[in-house]
Write a structure and sequence with these properties.
Elements (H helix, E strand, L loop, with lengths): L11 E7 L3 H15 L9 E6 L5 H6 L9 E5 L2 H18 L7 E5 L3 E3 L4 H4 L8 E6 L18 H9 L25 E9 H21 L5 H12 L3 E4 L6 E2 L2 H6 L9 E3 L17 H6 L5 H14 L3
Parallel strand pairs: 1-2, 1-4, 2-3, 6-8, 9-10
Antiparallel strand pairs: 4-7, 5-10, 6-7
Helix pairs in contact: 3-6, 6-7
Length: 315
């Protein structure tokens, strides 16, 4: 494996929101292993885990003895925020935390892993103005709850106007809209991988909580964390670019085919589909051997299996 050089000396930080469960802990441990195998600057990147559900943080740390001697920061979501915003508050709290000495802050989901470096995009984040990058979400956001309707052509223009923002062209297609069924969208990212510089984090941090409250009252979509990033980026006229699917490749054959990827292209794998295993349990001690023994039909699940096998061999 080629060890990537340190691009421009930028210091990286990955932030992952979780609930305090064994399944999430195992996913975080796999994420950390995937970083370590890439060498610097990934092996030395800061890994910040934001834990919700009004957790007992001492119990969380005690439940993760593997993390005692590694550079992991465990952050607890304030009870008042979780009471009001629930899991959305957990996802949003990581934007409230200052960057400290990090130059590039990457929002990751627990069900993601880096298979390769992300060096090609790092040079984008050295600017002093706010810069954010992500892969466009698969489909338009549902309007009310999980699946009670999909945002139509009037959704983004009206929502941006109501928020007091605007977004100039060009807009883009949703990443799985291969038949042009849906209207174009401004940069509306899937949160599996969103990278930003310090200036962008500052803007997101100062606006995220009131924006979440505004959306909860106006458009209570299940995807309002993603919607909020689009609105804030627009309001601050951020340099908001769209990344190819290789930086957020779903273990979904349709996503894989529609984006024209090969397995060797994938830099960040997002194993969000559960057609061949359950995300919450497949890495647990009672299940991991079964997962490793399976004949998996989805190409990116096979790539995940190979990574898990390598990780398992280190135990």
């Amino acid at each position: 494996m080629t060890i990537p050089s340190d691009p421009d000396g930028l210091r990286l930080e990955f932030r992952i929101p979780i609930s305090p469960t064994p399944g999430f802990f195992a996913q975080v441990q796999l994420f950390h292993f995937a970083l370590q195998r890439l060498g610097p600057p990934y092996a030395s990147a800061k890994l910040r885990i934001v834990v919700g559900d009004k957790c007992d943080l001492d119990a969380v740390i005690e439940a993760n003895p593997w993390a005692r001697d590694v550079d992991i920061i465990w952050d607890r979501v304030p009870d008042a925020l979780f009471d009001v915003a629930g899991i959305w508050g957990t996802a949003n709290w990581r934007l409230s935390l200052p960057p400290e000495d990090s130059d590039v802050i990457i929002l990751s989901d627990a069900d993601t892993v880096l298979l390769q470096d992300i060096d090609p995009i790092l040079a984008d984040f050295g600017a002093s103005h706010p810069v954010v990058r992500g892969h466009v979400a698969h489909y338009p956001p549902p309007l009310d709850g999980e699946a009670k309707g999909t945002a139509g052509p009037e959704f983004w223009p009206k929502l941006l106007a109501d928020y007091g923002a605007s977004w100039s062209e060009p807009w883009t297609h949703y990443s799985m809209d291969i038949d042009d069924r849906f209207p174009l969208t401004p940069p509306y990212y899937n949160l599996g991988f969103v990278a930003m510089n310090r200036a962008a984090l500052t803007c997101f941090g100062q606006d995220i909580h009131w924006t979440e409250e505004w959306l909860r009252k106006k458009h209570p979509s299940h995807m309002r964390c993603q919607i909020a990033l689009t609105l804030i980026a627009a309001a601050h006229a951020m340099d908001a670019g769209c990344l190819p699917a290789t930086y957020n490749a779903a273990n979904d054959p349709n996503h894989f085919a529609s984006c024209g990827m090969a397995p060797c292209d994938v830099r960040v794998l997002h194993y969000l589909r559960e057609n061949e295993f359950e995300r919450a349990t497949f890495l647990l001690p009672g299940n991991i051997e079964d997962f490793l023994a399976r004949d998996l039909g989805t190409v990116m699940n096979a790539e995940l299996q190979a990574l898990v096998r390598q990780w398992r061999s280190t135990w």
